[in-house]
């Protein structure tokens, strides 16, 4: 029998309060969003309090302004993440059921959409307050990986976004009929790559440590756009690679397309996550090159 890891006995809810017919549940996924945003807020405040690390020895904004900016960011994350999921992953379903777009508690958020929402909110706010956009983007980049780490761990707790079937010793047997349905001829329990943990490690831990090293060891913030570029390229590459091991989204899988490729390239192809990550890599490389060509301030 293959050595596999059973899914831990943990519920998606932190706690549930029931009063008569009313019930409120705090889920780990919601807690990850809240904690990630709070950590990002405090990290950005800390960065604004070390002006000597910024161009000209001046931080792009006052520490007190970060709180106002975070209000815009929260709206960008929620609206962008939800609309991104609707447009990129299930447009047909939500076109037929438009009111379902509002039911965010049922799940369905897309990182790429959330990133676009944050970018739009940040651009508007920076223009209103005359804050250098590239420097604000660098601060966002440094503060984002902890939230990604917590979010991917919450995906694991929710037993969602798991990987393809695997015989590796750390493969996990996730609950649910679809998760336990393996290709014909598969021997033993249907264990899968814990792709959520791969992404937590790459997008959250590794990328976060790399950005912190750039900021605190190399003075990268003195080259506006460099840290943001490394973040975009690093996230894009990490997501692109893990997508090879992640189970395809069910709505893209058909008898003629069992791998769920959105873009077909002969016998191969790209998933939606990979397709959306390529522009991030390109934008990140452009930002890094532009920042490197400028003299550090």
Description of the structure:
- The chain is mostly helical and 297 residues long.
- It has one domain.
- Helices cover 54% and strands 8% of the residues.
- The protein is built from 9 helices and 6 strands.
- Strands 1-4 form a two-stranded parallel ribbon.
- Strand 5 (263-265) and strand 6 form a beta hairpin.
- Helix 6 runs antiparallel to helix 7 (195-218).
- The longest helix has 26 residues, at 63-88.
- The protein is globular, with a radius of gyration of 21 Å.
- The chain starts with a strand and ends with a helix.
- 38% of the residues are buried.
- The model has no long low-confidence stretch (mean pLDDT 91).
Mean pLDDT: 91
Beta content:
5-15%
What is the helix content?
40-55%
Task: Give, in spatial order, the strands making up the sheet with the most strands.
Answer: 1-4
The Rg value, from CA coordinates, equals: 21 Å
Shape estimate: globular
Oligomer: single chain
**Sheet with most strands:** 2 strands, parallel
Order of helices and strands: EEEHHHHHHEHHEEH
How far the N terminus sits from the C terminus, by CA atoms, comes to: 61 Å
Structural class: mainly alpha
Number of strands: 6
- Summed up, the helix count is 9
Please tell me the total number of domains.
1
Describe the secondary-structure layout:
Blueprint: E1 5-6, E2 13-19, E3 22-27, H1 28-48, H2 63-88, H3 91-96, H4 111-129, H5 133-143, H6 145-157, E4 172-173, H7 195-218, H8 226-242, E5 263-265, E6 268-270, H9 272-293
Parallel strand pairs: 1-4
Antiparallel strand pairs: 2-3, 5-6
